[in-house]
């Protein structure tokens, strides 16, 4: 391994080497459609596909190339996680909602796998399993109990890995054991988006790249959407802009905080190093508030590691240095490894930290995937589409709910995020210090 720059050679996603987002064949803007969709990531396209196959005319708009948002920038881990615990959801909503949310995670993940297979989407998907490392023995005990509960309640193959067996899963001494979930895997996110786009176009969705919706106005029983390419009328509107929500959806923008997530990718590592560090080529996570997610690239030759960015300081290299430190904390032998790529994208959090489908003034919104949209966005987009179609059972979801609460004093500039992130980092440091006592 050479020891050149500590930064990365490229500031674009590794995934774009094989599947760069690009222009879609230009289509004239229809005068009117049944449904207009704002955002052509996983959520918008999955919704568009469902609607088009049900016979609706659909126009999907994206301010960038379709997929250029989070849907071609993510880690590709099919985690389908929910941040709040079962108990916390029961407190905020009720016990039935907490149970339904947990069960829907399983259904949504299975839906994705079935979708990839029936639509023949080649995106390097492998159900590798995921190892989640524990910071200390207390955390390990709790994670082991949770894994047992998951196996009992939902029949998900999940089990604890004690510290002494940890090296079978990961070549680090950093954790005090962990848990494995066999139902999670990894895919190539940009290839997934490209496959979804192809299927949606073939179904008749009219996709308009580099066409931002600048305003949505009520017009009689329907809506008028303003774009630089002209105005379009729509009977129904679905907003799927998630972490890239702008002034066209002010109601959503006050309820959804965009957070930067950044990824680094190493140069190709020798096979014996990969065999030592990631012997089973599983997806990886950890029990910290600001934990890293990491994985081998689909060819098994590089390590990709991601985490939250803590702010927008003046030193643009600081976030890459921080991730590099995270990488070598886990794998000291990677000190000095070259990085081929580093980039960031935006995830979206709401105050409940739960994905959400809600309606306000006749517009339907589907967003708030809190960094786990590979599973949630296609699922929630599809459910939202069924809602617009008025389908009964297929429109059911635990995520249909009241709008998330607005974030106080927030109009689109997340000025408070650095303080939040510092708070989480402090909690992690305390947990770490306790685990080492
Ligand atoms: C670095 C990173 C790593 C991640 N890792 C994982 C992971 O490993 N596993 C996982 O499950 N999830 C992960 N995620 C989250 C996941 O990528 C997202 O939750 C998911 O892609 C969201 O899909 P979406 O369709 O809702 O939004 P997006 O893909 O972000 O699409 C929203 C689109 O809306 C468009 N838009 C916004 N406003 C307008 C407007 N006014 N007019 C027209 N278009 C507009 C934007 O241009 C954008 O393309 C990660 C995200 C990031 C950024």
TrEMBL record:
Pfam family, one: DAO
Residue ranges constituting the FAD dependent oxidoreductase domain according to the UniProt record: 34-386
Enzyme class name: oxidoreductase
Enzyme nomenclature, EC number: 1.-.-.-
Keywords per UniProt: Oxidoreductase
Keyword Oxidoreductase carried by entry: yes
Keyword Glycosyltransferase: no
Molecular function per GO: oxidoreductase activity
Transmembrane region(s): none
InterPro entries: FAD-dep_OxRdtase, FAD/NAD-bd_sf
Annotated protein name in UniProt: NAD(P)/FAD-dependent oxidoreductase
Organism: Seohaeicola nanhaiensis
């Amino acid at each position: 391994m050479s020891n050149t720059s500590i930064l990365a050679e490229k500031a674009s996603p590794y995934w774009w080497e094989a599947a760069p987002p690009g222009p879609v064949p230009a289509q004239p803007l229809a005068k009117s459609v049944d449904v207009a969709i704002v955002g052509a990531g996983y959520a918008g396209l999955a919704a568009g596909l469902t609607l088009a196959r049900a016979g609706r005319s659909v126009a999907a708009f994206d301010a960038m190339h379709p997929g250029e948002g989070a849907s071609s920038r993510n880690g590709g881990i099919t985690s389908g996680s929910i941040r709040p615990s079962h108990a916390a959801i029961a407190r905020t909503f009720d016990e039935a909602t907490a149970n339904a949310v947990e069960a829907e995670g399983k259904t949504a993940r299975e839906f994705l796998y079935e979708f990839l297979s029936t639509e023949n989407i080649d995106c390097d998907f492998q159900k590798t399993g995921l190892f989640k490392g524990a910071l200390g023995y207390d955390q390990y005990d709790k994670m082991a109990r949770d894994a047992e509960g998951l196996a009992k309640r939902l029949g998900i193959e999940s089990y604890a890995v004690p510290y002494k067996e940890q090296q079978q899963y990961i070549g680090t001494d950093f954790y005090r054991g962990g848990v494995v979930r066999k139902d999670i895997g990894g895919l190539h996110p940009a290839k997934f988006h490209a496959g979804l786009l192809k299927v949606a176009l073939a179904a008749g969705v009219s996709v308009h790249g580099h066409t931002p919706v600048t305003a949505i106005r009520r017009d009689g029983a329907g809506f008028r959407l303003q774009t630089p390419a002209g105005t379009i009328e729509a009977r129904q509107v679905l907003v799927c802009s998630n972490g890239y929500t702008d002034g066209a959806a002010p109601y959503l923008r006050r309820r959804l905080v965009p957070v930067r997530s950044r990824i680094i990718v190493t140069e190709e590592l020798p096979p014996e190093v990969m065999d030592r560090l990631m012997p089973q080529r599983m997806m990886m996570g950890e029990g910290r508030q600001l934990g890293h997610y990491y994985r081998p690239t689909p060819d098994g030759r590089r390590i990709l590691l991601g985490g939250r960015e803590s702010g927008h300081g003046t030193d643009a290299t600081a976030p890459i240095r921080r991730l590099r430190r995270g990488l070598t904390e886990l794998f000291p032998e990677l000190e000095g490894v070259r990085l081929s790529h580093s980039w960031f994208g935006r995830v979206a959090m709401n105050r409940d930290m739960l994905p959400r489908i809600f309606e306000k003034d006749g517009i339907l919104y589907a967003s708030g995937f809190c960094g786990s949209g590979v599973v949630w966005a296609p699922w929630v987009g599809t459910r939202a589409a069924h809602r617009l179609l008025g389908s009964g059972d297929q429109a059911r979801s635990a995520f249909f709910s009241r709008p998330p609460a607005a974030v106080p004093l927030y109009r689109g500039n997340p000025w408070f995020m650095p303080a939040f992130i510092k708070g989480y980092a402090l909690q992690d440091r305390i947990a770490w210090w306790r685990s080492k006592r």
